[in-house]
Description:
Elements: H1 6-23, H2 28-45, E1 64-71, E2 74-81, H3 86-92, E3 112-115, E4 118-121, E5 134-136, H4 150-157, H5 167-179, H6 186-192
Parallel strand pairs: 1-5
Antiparallel strand pairs: 1-2, 3-4, 3-5
Amino acid sequence: MSEQSVPDALAAFSNHLAALAARAAPRTVGIRLPFMATGMAAALAASSPAGAAPAAGAAMPHHRSTVSFTLNGERRRADVANRTTVLDWLRQEAGLTGVKKGCNEGACGTCTVLIDGKRMNACLTLVVQCAGRDIVTIEGIAGPGGALHPVQQSFIDHDAFQCGYCTPGQILSAIACIQEGHATDEASVREWMSGNICRCAAYPQI
């Protein structure tokens, strides 16, 4: 960046996300944007010294942070580059490959995880935003002895998948949809699950 400082640029981006959230219909993507808007600027601002703007053409320094959070019921500490997404950390560092990488732009819902009980796009959420939070992936919803979660069992019973690539995100989104009280009728379920795309078109069973 040559003329606009990093903090200013991040603040502008955060304001842009907040504006999108304000305009969004009450659907899944509208749930995720406020969390991003409030955490993105503060989290990324840490990657630049206070009040300092990089010189034109200068390489950005690679700053790191140590973050503590709960992952599938276990306390974890992660040393990460400040720009590391939850998606990349889960797959590459934690070995939890149940979370899938799809569009990597927050549009398909394939990478959905639960953060403090809310469904979030892991590809757009930074690990540094999750300090002190509770993260749940598809690997963390099984019951004692590995018993399937009722929603997992329901997906099997109703054949609610084909290739299965989007299934982890669909299941976690469905769990959140029920917990949020939106699974009251078919139209509500369709609306509140609309942030999760199934390219095999298994929507009727889902």
